[in-house]
Write a structure and sequence with these properties.
Distance between the termini: 68 Å
Number of domains: 3
Low-confidence stretches: 1-8, 179-189
Number of helices: 12
Shape: elongated
CATH class of the largest domain: Alpha Beta
Structural class: alpha/beta
CATH topology of the largest domain: Rossmann fold
Largest sheet: 10 strands, mixed
Length: 475
């Protein structure tokens, strides 16, 4: 059963050419860009597509399920006169859908009269509310040093073989199962997760489904799955369908929605594939010149608005080819989003989980969501001091690799000890460990206490007196 609203429209028999998932149709009049089409083969089997380009008598159609089995003479195309729409309802939480929004969990089609355009509607900039409420993920390297705010878009930059899937599942699980989300007193019933997977393998999809089910989080999660063996062109719709449901839950049902999109690199590869088939002039590394605006159209469907109590927080996950952060996908994503969480290959090889590389990671909105009345009054100075100490430790570690650790001075020796403890005790934590913000801050102060007080130049004297512990454990 199709999830689009079918409206009467013109029908064209026969097409001019078919190349991969792209079809050239002649003889259609008054066709609109992004219009949905029904495509029937010679046996009467139907599949969906949408209009990519419109000419005076010719239009380019993208076939969602691919063109296998279609012939030039035996194919009929019916234009439906509307854009792609999916049903949206609160009852979609706890369900699993395909890349186009059709149920794949054996359940019925959602019973609702509300259908929404997958392209969404632009948010009036004057209606946006600045994010200020932090989301506690239970992960120290994020909560303490790269704080996520409600309404923020904060991607995870990863690489092949690194545990970004486990990290995403842990964030969803801990945010859903009672971690404080934003303001004190927020009830978990107001919180929902929309999860979209694009081009992932079956075992990855099974991992997420099993993880959410075993933790009980699945009842608050709506999953949209486009698997590796599904048509690549459907990957272009999957994140948009997920965000369409998220917008309904946030702005109509007044929920705080966390959107996980993985893997955005697979999405961009599908976009490049379609662009190459269409014969478009390629840009950097073969990606289309409109990659930036295409990504922005999805990432900007995030935030809070003055007319609703709900919010959309977005965590896109992408794997950097060859761990290259200058690759077009992470490069453009970093321009659009408000920071990034970067996973480090060296930390992963040391067995540290989550392998969050603190120095190249950043949350640009962090300063507005921490401090007194939100996290704790010492959080800002504490974070600056930890960053400075860990950055200096990296310089000391590089020097030690040249002259030897035993040749370092006493203070530098303490920085090396601090760095090892920071990675082992602060960054590293168990997959099931859910730390409060108080625990995170206390761990950081315990590590800073390994350094001489004279080295703590980013925190105030009052904060040192209150939180710094000497070697004997005294203040």
């Amino acid at each position: 059963m199709s999830s689009v609203i079918v409206q009467s429209g013109q029908e064209v028999l026969g097409v001019r050419s078919i190349a991969g998932p792209i079809m050239i149709v002649e003889g259609a009049a008054n066709v609109s860009y992004d219009e949905v089409v029904e495509i029937r083969d010679a046996q009467g089997r139907m599949r969906l597509g949408r209009v990519l380009e419109v000419g005076e008598k010719v239009c380019v159609v993208q076939v969602f399920a691919g063109s296998t089995g279609l012939s030039i003479d035996g194919t009929s195309v019916r234009f439906l006169g509307d854009t792609l729409r999916i049903p949206v309802a609160e009852e979609m939480l706890g369900r699993v859908f395909g890349g186009l929004g059709n149920p794949v969990d054996g359940g019925p089609q959602p019973l609702t009269d509300t259908y929404a355009d997958v392209n969404g509607a632009p948010i009036n900039p004057t209606a946006r509310v600045y994010p200020r409420d932090y989301i506690q993920t239970g992960i120290s390297a994020i909560d303490g040093l790269n704080t996520l705010l409600r309404g923020q878009k904060l991607p995870i930059f990863s690489g092949a073989g690194m545990p970004h899937d486990q990290l995403a599942a842990q964030i969803v699980r801990q945010a859903t199962l009672g971690a404080e989300v934003g303001k004190q007193g927020t009830q978990s019933e107001q919180f929902a997760v929309v999860f979209a997977a694009m081009g992932v393998k079956h075992d990855v999809a099974d991992f997420f489904r099993r993880s959410f089910t075993e933790s009980g989080a699945l009842t608050r999660v709506a999953m949209f799955l486009n698997l590796a063996d599904d048509p690549p062109v459907e990957r272009l719709v999957t994140p948009r369908a997920a965000l369409t449901l998220a917008e309904y839950l946030a702005y109509e049902c007044q929920m705080h929605v966390l959107v996980i999109l993985t893997d955005m690199t697979n999405y961009c590869e599908a976009l490049r594939q379609i662009s190459n088939i269409r014969g478009e002039v390629p840009s950097r590394k073969g990606y289309p010149g409109y990659l930036y605006s295409d990504l922005a159209a999805m990432y900007e469907r995030t935030g809070r608005i003055s007319t609703s109590e709900g919010s959309i927080t977005q965590i896109p996950i992408l794997t950097m080819p060859s761990d290259d952060i200058t690759h077009p996908v992470p490069d453009l994503t970093g321009y659009i989003t408000e920071g990034q969480i970067t996973l480090g290959r060296d930390l992963d090889q040391k067995g540290i989980y989550p392998p969050i590389a603190v120095l190249p990671s950043l949350s640009r909105l962090m300063k507005d969501g921490i401090g007194k009345g939100r996290t704790r009054e010492d959080h800002s100075h504490w974070g600056a001091q930890l960053y400075a100490a860990y950055a200096h430790m990296q310089d000391v570690r590089a020097l030690a690799s040249v002259i030897g650790e035993e040749e370092l001075g006493e203070v530098d020796q303490k920085y090396l000890q601090f760095g090892r403890a920071f990675e082992r005790e602060f960054v590293n934590q168990a997959l099931t460990e859910n730390r409060t913000i108080e625990q995170t801050l206390d761990i950081g102060w315990r590590l800073l206490s390994m350094l001489p007080k004279e080295e703590l130049t980013r925190v105030t004297l009052d904060e040192i007196k209150r939180y710094h512990k000497g070697e004997d454990g005294s203040s």
